[in-house]
Design brief:
heterodimer; A: 501 residues; mainly alpha; 3 domains; two-stranded antiparallel sheet; 65% helix; 1% strand; B: 195 residues; alpha+beta; elongated
Chain lengths: 501, 195
């Protein structure tokens, strides 16, 4: 039986011409450091990307069997997947965390290649095809967000279209291409579905093929050593000699690490999917629903924050030239710095660039998770009990402070937003006249309220702000427990004597 | 001596170089033609936006009496180009303000910063954006935050006793008049520098 199977196997291998390919892969040599030293662990990220991409194909194919790319049905079909289909929610979660892993790994892979200078001669095209793959992975993340068909995903596409609309000359046209019309609607969803499920995956498969072929053709880069610069005249012959002398094979000397790491990544994805479950969908993307507070997925949060922090004068730079030029600029990297030292110890700027990019990304993302630049629409009025004992104008001021939206951005007493400064600090810094001028005329990101508030309303608001500052300056125990309850008791004992008019 | 059954190279005359070059060009040309033949109609589907005849249609959003003077209300109407299967995604919203008896203004819900949906806050008398904290006055002028220009407007009219909005899609920057910075925002910036 075994002999017969083997005969069938070798018949297929012979007629399909697979023998030379098997032999090539079996005997393919890599730099010995990758097999014999722990440095090999840094050379596993690319293969892990291939593994996770395969997982995305498998989970995505499963999801496509139940998902309906129609504006009326998409959201319901996701609910159906979450709640009715066996493993449906789990596969959605796998797909989401798989996508997150793709983004994490693609940047980690890129960072490793910059730090070890692996993009240098003769691997310039490996890098350039890698940049194309980076773009495709981000394009998948972006199109996938819309397929979730909740108001977050749709708002993200609205924002992207609005940014594209700013491009010189072709902006409005690009905007129509992305939206497939004038607004995000049924045509947009169909287009994004086709791109996400057919076009981009096919391009990714093709580019992975080219990328892997180049990796085999140019050889896997060796871990760099300070004082061993890349010289195009001698590198290739040195590299071949180095591999021959080392006699380390890709399979299985190095491949085991790659598979082990890929398995670890799978374990993390499965663990996250199991414990955290699928993402969304959030509220349906009704374009007339204006009470939304949309957020992009974490991969684009840094941009969301950056759009807030950039000065208005840099609008064009951040919104137009950066997205337009970042990929061409990345592609130029090996053409500008293609030879010389590869060791990070001799290329401090490469390390600084990667470290700096990571720190900037992490900081922007962290701010994006808890944005302080938006009004806190969910703030509640300060309960009357907490204002007990305060004079009537303070009660009136607290009401105005809440109803007129001051509290969306400011804390005066106990609750409010943090877009604007805490008013406790403002009253310490500013005179009452300066406070009044700021309320009336606005300043920085504070709107002018001159036409919105009456003079008496401004007086009451100020009374409330100063009362709150004075109350907050007291020691905690006097402020909260006894003071408030004393006043509440007094009010309960003699109703109507104090408190709101 | 056995005659060789296979024809040898000597039996066939060498293909002249010029002919070979011509054939190479022919292969590339025909391949390119086939590719173009497929790509052109494909590009038609990919690029062509859905230009439809009712793009500039006027949409009925109610009677004038539905809009008290000085109030800002949300109206919902059909998109400029709803697909038959668009459902709720084929609707648009606008903020309609009756400025005076005869004057209406209709603002789009898209913030002019990066296009998030702005909400009208009646108490604050401001449009506020939930993405980057932009704010607009009731007349659409920038009140605060990063928006570079006033809220975009829909054409609005009273026609045969009905209030009508001309449905256009998402505003595009080149549609908007070069309003630049509004007085409110200039003041904010100056004061920021001065303080």
């Amino acid at each position: 039986m075994k002999a017969r199977l083997r005969r069938i196997g070798s018949w297929i291998a012979d007629r399909a011409g697979l023998e030379p390919i098997f032999r090539f892969l079996k005997e393919y040599k890599v730099p010995p450091e990758l097999g014999r030293t722990k440095k090999g662990w840094f050379w596993v990220l690319g293969q892990a990307l291939v593994f996770v991409f395969l997982a995305q194909v498998v989970t995505g194919t499963g999801l496509a069997m139940k998902y309906i790319p129609s504006p009326v049905h998409a959201w319901d079909s996701l609910q159906f997947l979450n709640n009715e289909v066996m493993w449906g929610g789990f596969v959605r979660a796998l797909h989401y965390f798989g996508a997150s892993a793709m983004v994490v790994l693609v940047f980690a892979h890129m960072a490793r290649i910059v730090i070890t200078g692996s993009y240098k001669f003769p691997r310039e095209l490996n890098w350039i095809t890698g940049v194309v793959l980076l773009f495709l992975v981000l394009a998948m993340a972006f199109t996938g967000q819309l397929l979730r068909w909740d108001h977050h995903g749709v708002a993200t596409v609205d924002v992207a279209a609005s940014i594209l609309g700013r491009f010189p000359l072709v902006g409005p046209w690009l905007m129509e291409i992305v939206l497939s019309g004038q607004t995000v609607g049924g045509a947009t969803l169909s287009r994004f579905f086709a791109l996400h499920v057919i076009v981009f995956p096919l391009l990714i498969v093709a580019m992975i093929g080219v990328h892997l072929y180049l990796a085999l053709a140019n050889g896997v880069s060796e871990p760099p050593k300070a004082g061993r610069p890349v010289d195009p005249a001698t590198y290739r012959s040195w590299y071949e000699r180095h591999k021959e002398e080392g006699n380390t094979r890709f399979f299985p000397d190095v491949a085991w690490r790659e598979v082990a790491f890929a398995l670890l990544v799978y374990a993390v994805i499965f663990g996250l999917a199991f414990f955290l479950g699928p993402k969304g969908p959030g509220a349906p993307p009704d374009p007339t629903f204006t009470e939304q507070v949309p957020r992009p997925d974490w991969y684009f949060l840094w941009l969301y924050t950056l759009i807030w922090y950039k000065p208005a004068a840099l609008d064009a730079v951040v919104l137009v030239w950066f997205p337009l030029l970042v990929f061409p600029a990345l592609m130029l990297l090996p053409l500008l710095f293609g030879t010389g030292e590869r060791a990070p110890s001799r290329r401090p700027w490469a390390v600084v660039a990667v470290g700096g990019a990571f720190v900037i990304w992490a900081t922007l993302t962290a701010f994006g998770l808890r944005p302080h630049w938006i009004p806190n629409f969910d703030t509640d009025p300060v309960p009357a009990a907490m204002l007990a004992g305060a004079p009537p104008e303070v009660h009136a001021g607290a009401a105005v402070f809440y109803e007129r939206g001051c509290q969306y951005c400011h804390v005066a007493y106990d609750r409010g937003g943090d877009y604007g400064p805490d008013l406790n600090q403002s009253v310490a810094r500013l005179s009452r006249e300066e406070m009044t001028v700021r309320i009336m005329m606005g300043i920085g990101n504070m709107p002018a309220y001159a036409h919105i508030l009456s003079a008496s309303e401004v007086d009451n608001v100020l009374a409330y702000i100063y009362w709150a500052a004075e109350r907050r300056a007291r020691p905690a125990e006097e402020r909260d427990a006894p003071g408030a309850s004393d006043a509440a008791e007094r009010e309960a004992a003699e109703p109507g004597r104090e408190g709101p008019p | 001596m056995e005659p060789d059954p296979k024809p040898s190279a000597a039996d066939c005359p060498e293909i002249p170089l010029a002919r070979r070059q011509f054939l190479a060009m022919l292969v590339l040309g025909m391949g390119g033609l086939a590719g173009t033949a497929l790509l052109v109609p494909w590009m038609g589907l990919f690029l062509a936006p859905h230009h439809r005849s009712d793009l500039d249609a006027w949409r009925d959003v109610g009677e004038p009496d539905d809009f008290p003077v000085g109030e800002t209300l949300k109206v919902i109407f059909r998109d400029p180009e709803p697909l038959p299967w668009a459902g709720y995604s084929g609707r648009s919203a606008a903020w309609v303000r009756r400025v005076s008896d005869n004057e209406f203004a209709a603002f789009t819900t898209y913030c002019t910063h990066v296009g998030c949906a702005v909400r009208w806050e009646e108490g604050a008398q401001l449009f506020m954006c939930p993405c980057h904290g932009g704010a607009f006055h009731a007349n659409g002028m920038v009140a605060a935050g990063p928006p570079p220009r006033p809220l975009d407007r829909f054409p609005i009219r009273v026609h045969d006793g009905r209030v009508e909005i001309q449905a256009v899609g998402m505003p595009r920057p080149d549609d908007a008049p070069e309003a630049g910075r509004t007085p409110g925002q200039d003041r904010g910036k100056d004061r920021e520098l001065g303080s």
